[in-house]
């Protein structure tokens, strides 16, 4: 987007970092004229971004930036000596969010959020977007997977998938989008731990905190494995499994005695070898009543 302003004093680098003073970060002097120029640029770019995203009203403006602690990255391009065009903007800010991971556990965290991202239509598909994003990530020493994205468009989701391989969304109870990789680090992937545990301030209750019931036919016939009885089963479940094991053993012994009483003696007065090696068959119908 072209503006009839001379930005040579602040556009020495292609990307300008602006805070709520409406001046570049690190700008040492007061400059009302420059503030007015930046204010008009932000209003125009914010309006264009809102139209591109089909929003009811712009989410970026000079007034909104002044009333926040957000940071805005403004990308410019010099087309001729003393003549600059504004290519795009990227607005970032910290927010305290309640997040849900893919297991349903709730966490509370301060998350760096992508609030607005726009590249002018005349400069799209020319690499400006990824250059602006990479600059922001390096400036904050953060990865794209650690961001929360506010109401992303399909075009932005495709952009994140193309350049950062982010596609596995985790549904949230707000307008922000979090990817599965947000809860992972390189060490977590090896150990299987959950990064979200570091943000928990209180235990999770409700249906997500309930332990899964381990009642199945394998537990009844063969008994629960030690690892199963130690991973979240209540004492009542352990006692029930032990009772079922003892009952199974007693029933097996009684059945074995009954089988031996019905062995037929052969002519030489000895029992057949086959009857000695016969194993009792468990009648599964006797065990169904223990399930209910």
TrEMBL record:
Q: Which EC class, in a word? A: transferase
Task: Give the region (Disordered) as residue ranges.
Answer: 187-210, 266-292
Q: Which residues take part in binding acetyl-CoA?
A: 117-130
Q: Which GO terms describe its biological process?
A: neuron development; regulation of microtubule cytoskeleton organization
Lineage in the entry? Answer: Eukaryota, Metazoa, Ecdysozoa, Arthropoda, Hexapoda
- UniProt keyword Transferase present: yes
Highest taxon of source: Eukaryota
Please give the family membership noted in the entry: Belongs to the acetyltransferase ATAT1 family.
Please state what the protein is called. Answer: Alpha-tubulin N-acetyltransferase
Q: What does this protein do?
A: Specifically acetylates 'Lys-40' in alpha-tubulin on the lumenal side of microtubules. Promotes microtubule destabilization and accelerates microtubule dynamics; this activity may be independent of acetylation activity. Acetylates alpha-tubulin with a slow enzymatic rate, due to a catalytic site that is not optimized for acetyl transfer. Enters the microtubule through each end and diffuses quickly throughout the lumen of microtubules.
Q: Which reaction does it catalyse?
A: L-lysyl-[alpha-tubulin] + acetyl-CoA = N(6)-acetyl-L-lysyl-[alpha-tubulin] + CoA + H(+)
- Cite the GO molecular-function annotations of the record: tubulin N-acetyltransferase activity
